[in-house]
């Protein structure tokens, strides 16, 4: 019996199209349960329906979806120009540095690094040494004042 149903379907479609497009059952058989089409949860959502309605309205009016509001375009253009200007200024500042300024910057970085190393060494020193150094400083200050 299933083979005869297949042959009937083939007779209905002489073009030999895809079998999946037509169901494997015959509409005249009342014993078979017909499948129901599932709802797409995305299309069923209110937000999707409202968006689709808005797109259709814009299409009817002739408005392009890709076009942004004028204010947004102007603000983005200004932001982009500002970033480009800042980058150019930074590049020019780097180019305009003289060898003397570069050398000063290197020395300043080295001094900062040495200060950090000294702070680390002082942190590792025992507490009584730190207190003793503080006492020496206070004693020399009071001795100078007299």
Question: Could you walk me through the main structural features you see in this protein, from its secondary elements to its overall organization?
Answer:
The chain has helices spanning 2-12, 41-44, 46-61, 70-96, 99-124, 127-145. The chain has 146 residues and is mostly helical. The radius of gyration is 41 Å and the shape is elongated. The model has no long low-confidence stretch (mean pLDDT 78).
Percent strand? under 5%
What oligomeric state best describes the polypeptide chains here?
single chain
Question: How many DSSP-defined strands?
Answer: 0
* Main sheet properties: none
Number of helices: 6
Return Rg in Å.
41 Å
Large-scale geometry: elongated
Order of helices and strands: HHHHHH
Kindly, what is the distance between the CA atoms of the first and last residues, rounded to a whole number of angstroms?
Answer: 123 Å
The overall pLDDT average reads 78
Instruction: Please bin the fraction of helical residues.
Output: over 70%
Uncertain runs are none
Main location: other
GO molecular function, one term: actin binding
Subcellular location: Cell junction, Focal adhesion; Cell membrane; Cell projection; Cytoplasm, Cytoskeleton, Stress fiber
GO cellular component, one term: synapse
């Amino acid at each position: 019996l299933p083979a005869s149903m297949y042959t009937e379907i083939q007779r209905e479609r002489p073009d030999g199209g895809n079998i999946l497009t037509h169901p494997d059952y015959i509409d005249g058989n009342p014993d078979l349960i017909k499948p129901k089409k599932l709802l797409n949860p995305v299309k069923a959502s209110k937000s999707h329906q409202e968006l689709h309605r808005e797109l259709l309205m814009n299409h009817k009016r002739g408005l392009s979806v890709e076009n942004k509001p004028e204010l947004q375009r102007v603000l983005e253009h200004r932001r982009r120009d500002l970033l480009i200007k800042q980058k150019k200024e930074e590049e020019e500042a780097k180019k305009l540095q003289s060898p003397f300024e570069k050398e000063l910057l290197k020395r300043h970085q080295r001094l900062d690094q040495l200060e950090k190393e000294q702070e680390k060494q002082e942190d590792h020193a025992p507490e009584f040494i730190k207190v003793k150094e503080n006492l020496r400083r206070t004693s020399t200050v009071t001795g100078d004042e007299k």
